[in-house]
Structures are given as C-alpha cells and as structure tokens.
Amino acid sequence: MKKLWLFIAIVLTAIIVYVMIYWWRFTSAWQPVVNSFEIQISNLNASVYVKTKTWGITYDYQLLLISAHRKKNFEYDPKQDYIYHDFSYLFYRVTDDGLEIYTRTPSPVPEAFPPNIKIIQIELENPAMMELLTTYESRGLKKFE
Asked: Looking at per-residue confidence, does 27 or 46 come out higher?
C-alpha cells in the first residue's frame, strides 16, 4: 500500500510540475512587447516620443502613442497623446515644425498637445494606403514599427 501512495505522489508531483511549466510558457506568450523611440524636430529644438505596444498570442493587438513628454511606463492620456490602435499601416515624415502622419484612421487631436509641434494627419483610403506600402521609402516616408 505504501508503494501505491508513493507512486501516486510521484505521478501527481510530475503532473503539477508539467502544468506549472506549461502555464509559464503559455502566459509568457501573452506578455506585451513595448518599444519606444524619439523623433527630433530640429527646427523647433523639440522632440516627440513614440511608444508602441504589441500583445496577444499572435501579437495582433497594437497600440501606438505619440507624445510630447517622455514617459517611463506605457501610460497614456487622450488629452495629451495621439493614440493609434493599429500601426501596421502608419507612416510618417518629419517636417520643419512637426510630423506628417499617413493613416487610414486618424487619432483624435489631443487638446493638451503642445501647439508649437504640428502633427498633420493625412487620412488615406485603402487603395492609396496599399500603394503606399510598397512606395513609402521612395516618397521619403518612414514606417512606424
């Protein structure tokens, strides 16, 4: 009888360890990938800060923030930040006094964004955006990634 209980204890321990390892691997796949970079607006001697967050099992949920303030955490305020919910099709060009953003869905304009930094959002229909996917570099644009 002692051997049976020992066998059951070993099997249960092995199952628990296996479940814990599997759960750790599964939940780590859900961890978001956060990137950030700074874009210099040279004529203004100012910068905008871009933060991206991608998450989900297939990393198909995306969020991009454009802010005039450097932030350590991925916190955002719709009154201060431009917020885009999908940056797969989001391009930009640095201008003398800000950015031109080429997008299918513009962000609401934040009321507290510094007025000296001009963010111009150019809304494109789907065919124009699909063409831009292959020609953006020749047009002097960069892609948010």
From this structure: 46
Which of these, 88, 79, 85, 93, lies nearest to 121 by C-alpha position? 93
Q: Is the pLDDT of residue 37 over 80?
A: yes
DSSP per-residue letters across the chain: -HHHHHHHHHHHHHHHHHHHHHHHHHHHTT--EEEEEEEEEGGGTEEEEEEEEEESTTS-EEEEEEESS--SSS---TTT-EEES--TTEEEEEETTEEEEEESSPPPPPTTS-TTSEEEEEE--HHHHHHHHHHTTTTT-EE--
Q: Which distant-in-sequence residues (6+ apart) come within 8 Å of 13 by Cβ?
A: none
Residue 52 has pLDDT above 70, yes or no: yes
CA pair distance 66, 48, nearest whole angstrom: 7
Check residues 29 and 51 and name the one with the higher pLDDT: 51
In the chain, the N- to C-terminal Cα span, in Å, equals 62
